[in-house]
């Protein structure tokens, strides 16, 4: 299957790929050296498919040429297009964000610097939340190492066009693991428990991640907060990087607070309460202001004490 999609401008594929290279130290996503090609195995609805997106970078517009090979299940062309739209946040109207941000000279400068940068999200919420849990309290490089080890242990590897691509483990594959197997990979005891216990809750139907798509941000927070290992910051990151929600504010995030300190030229890092007060002026685009402030520091989201 092949699709050609012309994103609504502003859209900058290279900036998005460059962000991924810095933020995702895993073998699950492959990005070409020229930042114009993206490859990975995607889970979407009940289908699993190989996705290769090549960007034709023209002066006034960009085109995404999508090559798709279905590996399992059924995938209609409109579903494949929906998956691509979700991954690259193509339904987000950045012009509206830039117009609103333009009323503040600091935000306007950020938008000019990162013009066209959109979220690149996961389509599988289980994969997304497991990766976020793994990233708690560790740096990006070690988090990527742990994700790769988990994938090699419980996932699959397939050959596509002469190269090997990894598939992130399914819920059942992680639910079948013992804590000791993750401890041998340098997972902490707690993280091993958090990840395997979550998989088991999903496998037995206690937790239904697919139901989250129909819930508000606050409803999702209240649904997931009772689960071990999942605090507010973890859920906020899921809302941003797993679901692409445009108005999420991880106010406790150290990276965000440092970005505000730098951009607003403050003497000290603002408190969580001060961030929430300032961010009232960012509605309904708090995710994108946060994302651009993170990017201004060229840093990953920094985990607060209670993730």
TrEMBL record:
Record GO cellular component, one term: protein-DNA complex
Highest taxon listed in the record's lineage: Bacteria
Molecular function terms from GO: alkylated DNA binding; DNA-3-methyladenine glycosylase activity; DNA-7-methylguanine glycosylase activity; oxidized purine nucleobase lesion DNA N-glycosylase activity
Keywords in alphabetical order: DNA damage, DNA repair, Hydrolase
PANTHER family found in the cross-reference section: DNA-3-METHYLADENINE GLYCOSYLASE
Family: Belongs to the alkylbase DNA glycosidase AlkA family.
Protein name: DNA-3-methyladenine glycosylase II
